[in-house]
Amino acid sequence: MLNAKNCIKKNLTVPNALSLIRIIIIVPLVIFMLREQYVGAGLMLLISAVSDMFDGIIARKFHQITQLGKILDPIADKLTLIAVVICINIIYPVVTSFVIVLFSKEILMLCGGFLLLRMKIKPPAAKWYGKVSTVIFYVSVVTVVLLKAIWNITDQFLIVILFSITTFAMLFSLANYAILFFKLIKDKKENTEK
Hints:
By secondary structure, the protein is an all-alpha fold. The protein has a single domain (2-193), classed as Four Helix Bundle (Hemerythrin (Met), subunit A). The chain is built from eight helices and no strands. The radius of gyration is 18 Å and the shape is globular. The chain starts with a helix and ends with a helix.
């Protein structure tokens, strides 16, 4: 009983709460987007982006980094990304090829994370290239949503450019995480052989 209380107390942190908020607001975000209520969708995206930015800063500054947080943060990122990308694809079918690439990248990242856990290798914390690609994703999506919400602008060319930049950033992030993934597996094998 005491261990359960300690575990709960240790994981009750502001960064973990922010990650949970990001997961919870996916539902209203999807509803707003599919109903083409872009102001509400933009607000949900803004809350998600700001909370994503601050959870890591708060965790590091106030020494609130937890194992749960290392799992919740990327899950919140990936669930948000997948939900938004599917909604954007429904609203703007021109981005289907980008959606396939982004969705495949997220599935590969999730599979890699689970494989590391199965091998009893601690998954690494989010790296700068992952955070940068997430910021680029948010900027692209918020731009598309706010242009539609505020000025009723739907520029297919701009959407393709923004999603091209986002896809490049995501693939750059995937390549760097893949290098790290194989290094962690190699290090584990070398340590096991010693």
